[in-house]
Amino acid sequence: xxxxxxxITPESLRGHVGRPGWAxxxxxxxxxxxxxxxxxYLEGHIPGAIYAHLEKDLxxxxxxxxxxxxxxxxxxxxxxxxxxxxxxxxQVVAYDDNGGAYAARAWWCLRYLGHGAAAVLDGxxxxxxxxxxxxxxxxxTRPPADFLTAPRPGLRxxxxxxxxxxxTSRLRLIDARAPExxxxxxxxxxxxxGHIPGAxxxxxxxxLDARGRFRPAAELRQAYLALLxxxxxxxxxxxxGSGVTACHDLLALTHAGLDGARLYPGSWSEWCSNxxxxxxxxxxxxxxx
Length: 289
Known about the structure:
This protein has helices spanning 10-14, 36-43, 74-83, 103-112, 124-130, 159-165, 179-183, 217-228, 246-255, 267-271, and strands at 7-8, 22-26, 50-51, 91-95, 118-121, 172-175, 200-201, 236-239, 262-263. By secondary structure, the protein is α/β, with parallel strands linked by helices. It has two domains: 7-151, Oxidized Rhodanese, domain 1, CATH 3.40.250.10; 154-271, Rhodanese-like domain (Oxidized Rhodanese, domain 1, 3-Layer(aba) Sandwich). The termini are far apart.
């Protein structure tokens, strides 16, 4: 059996729970209540799952100008994965209870460091429990491993390159935030409202159906091809508020066979921290909304 590199169903995962070559990451989180995720993990999680904290494990300290969830240095992130018992042979499955909004960040981090055998549980914990599958309480541990990195710098883009290419045909920017935040109608978190000029809007929730599962790959492919226009995925970059839910769009792109788009890790929270960077408001170019 080949590895899972984008999504996995509860039915496919159930037979691998507890196997040494499989690691499960519980990524449940609440941006406004950081202690909530660890607490609900202890109450009940997929058996064998390790808790992956968005801010303590998958983010670096904030400087005030590097965004709200900066990426950790490669070796620090690798040390986290080693602590969780992940090596190059491990199949990793990440899940949350919010449609993959946080699990996709873990998926992207693993993929960026060269670990292809990483997938998100489609439908997350609700799909697992709806299937009648068990939970277990308490804290889990795994024997540490040696996670060897093979970074893929082509999967990320930094603010300087975005600024250089903004508004040109060399970069197709996709904003994964809610439409009202994209337009600048409201901004509940960051000090400036709006979007990076030229960006088009693809709210991450649009990747999901009414049950919180990812839409079919063919449907996602059609939607993203329309966003890309005449640009290949390699000329696209995705951002959100802080480099978290943008990973959801990147997962959807990859699942749709449109691999190669980049993450702007600092995202809007980094971009708007510099008053010299341009800001746009209102609907998409062409009036798409």
